[in-house]
What we know:
By secondary structure, the chain is mostly helical. Helix content is 69%, strand content 10%.
Amino acid sequence: MAAGGGTKAILAALFANAGIAVAKFVGFLITGSSSMLAESVHSVADTSNQGLLLLGQKTSRRKATREHPFGFGRDRYFYSFIVALMLFSLGSAFAIYEAVHKLQHPEDLNSPMVAVVILVVAIALETYSFRTAIVESRKVKGDASWWQFIRQSRTPELPVVLLEDAGALFGLVFALFGVGLAVITGDPMWDGVGTLMIGILLGIIAITLIIEMKSLLIGEGATPRESELIDKAVVGGRVQRLIHIRTQYIGPDELLVAAKIALEPGLPLADVAQEIDAAEGRVRDAVPAARLIYLEPDLDRTTTRA
């Protein structure tokens, strides 16, 4: 569900941004608005970003090799990290540069109503894309808040598209604000102010994504809820206690679980193997993403003090 939902949200954003980018560039060529130029570059970057997310999904499905025995699931994290860098460089940095230039050398807008019409239509299209991302994200976020979903999700595409679409929508509003005030007041400086607001917004979103994707690339373990379910699932049958456990997501849909467990003393080897298999089955039932499980039987060396 997560992968399919992520793909649907990416495609919705891809088609919306591609059409919006063309319209914005036409608007910039007609009006000379820096806000329109910043938004045009932003939409081109977003369109490229969605292409990278789709590429990451495709390459992550490659079969494991001897050199990469755990597969290529982290490709999705890598390309999501590149998306965050592009959002910062092509989106935020360019918009701030253009804003500074516009504020230092303000120029009157030509046919500003063209820009207003394009921005209004773009807001409608971007709202559709944003709504799609919200609908698909709700299917997997559960009871978590939106911020918790962005911070805790191990599937990168939905948080990336969600933040990108939010940034695009608010960026359009800021562009409309800048162009509108420039028309109302007759002062083209407001166009530069709107562009600066876009750049700052994209910078905040990009830095947030860079931090989150870097954390996923390095390797994150199971979520607190998943850890609780795994701890409970391991103990059962003749497994007396969970001694030690480590988890790590090696891809958005594949969790590695390695643990030491204490079994009843004196069990025959065949029974030990059977108990380990049963414990692995319980863990997979509790957390389906736990596909790679390594359980090592050990002695329970804990002592009870009076």
